[in-house]
Amino acid sequence: MHEYSIVGALIERVRAEAAERGASSVSRVWVSIGELAGVDPELLVTAYETFREHTICEKAELSVNHVSARWQCPSCARGIADDAPLCCPDCSTPARLMSGDEILLERIEMEVSHV
Q1: CA 50, 53, 55, 61: dihedral to nearest 10 degrees?
Q2: What is d(CA 19, CA 13) in angstroms, rounded to the nearest whole number?
Q3: What's the pTM value of the predicted model, to 2 decimals?
Q4: How big is the CA angle at 33 (ends 28 and 39), to the nearest 5 degrees?
Q5: Which of 46, 48, 52, 84 has the fewest CB neighbours in a 10 Å radius?
Q6: What is the pLDDT of residues 13-62, one digit of tens each?
């Protein structure tokens, strides 16, 4: 289950970002997961709940944004329908994946004391 390694990297990145800003705590973490990223969002949340104990994310809620796959013709920029063959109906150019394979740390809500 590679969701565990993804969560390990996520928590480490949040820890580094919080340390860089002098944050005392993190209250929420937002991630975007593409439908073609090969990650099961439910397993990711379960792994996060398991591994956040005794970390900067211990009290932080995880919000997951699901990103749908979106295909487009790289030549004429025409969008390709989800149920269509993956080539442009106008110019027959193979479609390019524009979104839906990402795993992104979008935002961190943290408590930072004034300096």
Answers
A1: 70
A2: 10
A3: 0.85
A4: 115
A5: 84
A6: 999 999 999 999 999 999 999 999 999 999 999 999 999 999 999 999 99
